[in-house]
Amino acid sequence: MPVELKILALGALLLFVHIFTATRFKTAQYGRKWNVGARDEALAEPSPVTGRTIRAQANFQETFPIAIVALLGVVIAGRTSPMTALGGWIWLGARVVYLPLYAVGVPVIRTVVWTISAIGLVMVIYPLLAG
Hints:
Layout: H1 3-30, H2 32-36, H3 48-76, H4 82-104, H5 108-130
Helix pairs in contact: 1-3, 1-4, 3-4, 3-5, 4-5
């Protein structure tokens, strides 16, 4: 099995981590009744940490489809290489680091880590565009 598929599966697990992290903070703020209810009621603004975990999840959900296309694309096209594997690991590693940085509220370093993850994706996508 190409390592790019393993990276993609780990990325799917990371999406679960994002979802559960944001839900944990929303439940802590709004209560279990909200969590198991229909969630029709208007809610107070999220606390800073809750808001950051919600935004981190949204950010991951915005970029994960790009990773899916890139990682599956190189596998389907038969363009996997040590560079696409390295790029995938860079993307995944940076995304793992990104969540706690965002949750804690670390500014500039968080953006640097996001940029590193984007560079990893470019390393994966490049063989699809250059071929």
